[in-house]
Amino acid sequence: MKRLICFALCALTALSLFACDMEFEMSVDVEQSVMQSESEQTSEEASKEESAAIIEDGLSADDVVVFLGDSIAQGYGLASVESERYSSLIAAEYGCTVHNYAIPGDDGADLLALLDEGTCTELKNATVIVLSIGANNVLKAAETLAPYLQGAENGNLPEKIDVSATFDVIVAGIDRFKTELPQIISKIRAVNADAQIIFQTVYNPYRDFTHFKVEQNGLQLSFAAFSASCVIGINDVIKANAEEQGYTLCDIYEPFKAYEGNLINALADGSNIDPHPNAEGHKQIALLVAGAVK
Q: For position 284, which CATH number holds?
């Protein structure tokens, strides 16, 4: 994501999936589609207990952890980036060495270019590599939301936004990511064949924006559901490649969705629309990433 315009991309992407080859049911009723059954919840509780054990034993002072990605991993929006971002929290908690090469605004193509430059010099020494990338693939679509963003910043949040113009750009961004993701993993493996790669899913930054509406070609849904559709589409690409590409999936979406409280800078009244995690959000991501270490 990229500053105040990047987050918009999250919202925008929603529509792409909503109207493209994503399942219609998932897009129309995102909240209902992600609900878990009682048995799944029981399984999730057991999984959390397992994660706690992994967190205790998974990382040590001998580990070298490299973080690659966008503004989420870089720590944009924090009062103290160097101390509050989740890579720093992990280093402080486990005593491991961390190197953060994340760049605000980077998408899949940018990360590929960065890997080609060879400037991530510690990549070859990493025992764990953490990726936060993909959301910015639909950043260009956010330009169509400029009037909405300007209105929000001026305290005049529109009741409804027509996002029809974003469709083609969003679809192209998601399709491009499908091609870029395997290339990213391949380039990382060319430098470091042995490190565990952890790939984060994307959270919904506008989970609580249920009372604002968007419209595409006459179809209306809440801004929260719109944004959820967007990130679910990105996450589907990340999930679909995990087994074949051999990386560990670290789900951020569901824990952020279920969290009772605000983990994002954005506020539901529209007074703040920054989609980046706040300090508490980074603490939660640190726990989830550490829990994914094997």
A: 3.40.50.1110
CB 264 within 8 A of CB 213: no
Q: Which residue type is seen at 159?
A: E
Total residue length of the chain: 294
- DSSP-derived letter for residue 29 is T
Distance of CA 70 to the CA centre of its chain: 9
**Residue-range definition of the domain harbouring residue 110:** 3-292
**Three-class secondary structure of residue 248 per DSSP:** strand
Q: Are 293 and 196 in contact (CB under 8 A)?
A: yes
Question: Dihedral of CA 99/103/108/113: which sign?
Answer: negative
Contacts of 96 (CB under 8 A, 6+ apart): 59, 60, 61, 62, 63, 64, 65, 90
Into how many domains does the chain fold? Answer: 1
Query: What are the average pLDDT values for consecutive 10-residue runs of the chain, which has 294 residues?
Result: 38 36 34 40 47 58 98 97 98 98 96 98 98 84 63 66 72 91 98 98 92 78 83 93 98 98 92 92 98 96
The token pair that represents 135 in the structure block: 């959301």
Distance CA 27, CA 14 (A): 8
DSSP state of 140: G
Parallel, antiparallel, or unpaired: how do β-strands 213-216 and 219-222 relate?
antiparallel
Side-chain-side CA neighbours of residue 265 (13 Å): 18
Cβ pair 212, 270 in contact under 8 A: yes
